[in-house]
Prior knowledge:
Two copies of one chain form a homodimer. Chain A is of the alpha+beta class and 319 residues long. Chain A contains eight helices and 14 strands. The radius of gyration of chain A is 20 Å and the shape is globular. Chains A and B meet through strand 2, strand 3, helix 2, strand 4 and strand 5 of A and strand 2, strand 3, helix 2, strand 4 and strand 5 of B.
Amino acid sequence: xxxxxxxxxxxxxxxxxxxxxxxxxxxxxxxxxxxxxxxxxxxxxxxxxxxxxxxxxxxxxxxxxxxxxxxxxxxxxxxxxxxxxxxxxxxxxxxxxxxxxxxxxxxxxxxxxxxxxxxxxxxxxxxxxxxxxxxxxxxxxxxxxxxxxxxxxxxxxxxxxxxxxxxxxxxxxxxxxxxxxxxxxxxxxxxxxxxxxxxxxxxxxxxxxxxxxxxxxxxxxxxxxxxxxxxxxxxxxxxxxxxxxxxxxxxxxxxxxxxxxxxxxxxxxxxxxxxxxxxxxxxxxxxxxxxxxxxxxxxxxxxxxxxxxxxxxxxxxxx
Amino acid sequence: xxxxxxxxxxxxxxxxxxxxxxxxxxxxxxxxxxxxxxxxxxxxxxxxxxxxxxxxxxxxxxxxxxxxxxxxxxxxxxxxxxxxxxxxxxxxxxxxxxxxxxxxxxxxxxxxxxxxxxxxxxxxxxxxxxxxxxxxxxxxxxxxxxxxxxxxxxxxxxxxxxxxxxxxxxxxxxxxxxxxxxxxxxxxxxxxxxxxxxxxxxxxxxxxxxxxxxxxxxxxxxxxxxxxxxxxxxxxxxxxxxxxxxxxxxxxxxxxxxxxxxxxxxxxxxxxxxxxxxxxxxxxxxxxxxxxxxxxxxxxxxxxxxxxxxxxxxxxxxx
Lengths: 319, 319
């Protein structure tokens, strides 16, 4: 086998230094982790599948590793949680070059280091087709303090971090055959999960509900409304649209409304709460308000109202 | 899409009732779980990939779901842990019949119920090729009490639960074209993870080291020796070989030595400890002893010694 599992595990094991939360990491039947006293455990799992979430000819391997972990960290961020450890299940085709695997792991571990977590375990297998990763992130939050999707109440304001639509617009350029340089599209190739922002919002009891924008504003805001039993109004002119590449032009509004994989946070806060304009250097923008009912309504630039239906970001299978 | 993700999630969500450990299950960015006071968290992840771990023409879908969860529960058992919740990441080909998915989930949830855990989350995606599942099981054990692979000491005795080689022998029959009826091969199609045995060994401080036999005796005992820095001697005549199907003949010794997926426990215990002959109705058999050095030696029926090399069970890719 060109990719012996044992060698891969040994390589990851060497690259990993156990953090305080990890009592036993790779090399036993289970990892053993310490959850801080008075905290609850947070667990999230996310696939990164070749042909669905990434393409090897479009995304450098270290960016694929980075994005793989971002998917998990962003879910921890959306609860206001603190990440403790990651677990990587990796199925690789026999023909995959060793260098690709090394770069994938390097990208993933670099982001892990930035968030002071390490790989505590996982699984490896030979893939019958493309490369497939499943990332698990374990985190924690003080008991009863994690921020749910279900806490939005009529009268709350709706906020987003950063800008929206950048990832979808960049993906569209790739679909159109453009070759993108990762350096010019950092939020697309190396999205930064908003862990510090989520933690700040939880520590300051600012957010009543929160979700990450991995599936796009229209879909993810609908999740908050569904779980909270409320409706929402969004002012289209307030939505912070991304600029991408070297252009200073804002991306098309449809990317910002429906494009996924920005890994920003969408949250609600009671209208009396003072939400800072920036948290941890990240722009916070008010885009609308929670209302009674079930509908998400978009108010366009002429003040006209129409229902905003979740378009359900489906990665590459969308088109 | 014939398999809309939302419908699948809704179906699983309906089938799942949250247990005490799960504060928030499916339907938020993360699951929130309560780890019992004074306990550490145990985490294990395992792939079940079509063509590698199962074949749809060989294994009924409920057995595939059952075996998928067994892989995780067996790892919890091997630490002496208590399972708390499972997470399922499931990527399915577009063409897969709905009935297959329902049966898969049914088999998995039936075993979950037996162990008083439920599905607390996961991910779904469309698979570019075969069906792929990644199971995560979260468990716990009292602080410092989980049983590691690394605790075996010279003089300890080596034990196994149940019988070995049954799964590999059944698989060999399928390879040879025989059609097996699941009812006649229960340990192969529906292996029972030894959670109660592992818990008993931990509670009675009997085991110094433990692992599950998912990769076969030769490979898994080598793991214990490697992590413990010891060698081992195994008496071939003591190894409890399985009988399978309607036959009362014991399987070939090579299946018992090298065959994987029996999901039994291999453990060591100081020679002064009194290990019961049965725990929770499961046969416990002494098969050898831990010695100084690094080698695993097999003592054959004529008393001759030869090194037992780990053959590294590779599921279907072995041949």
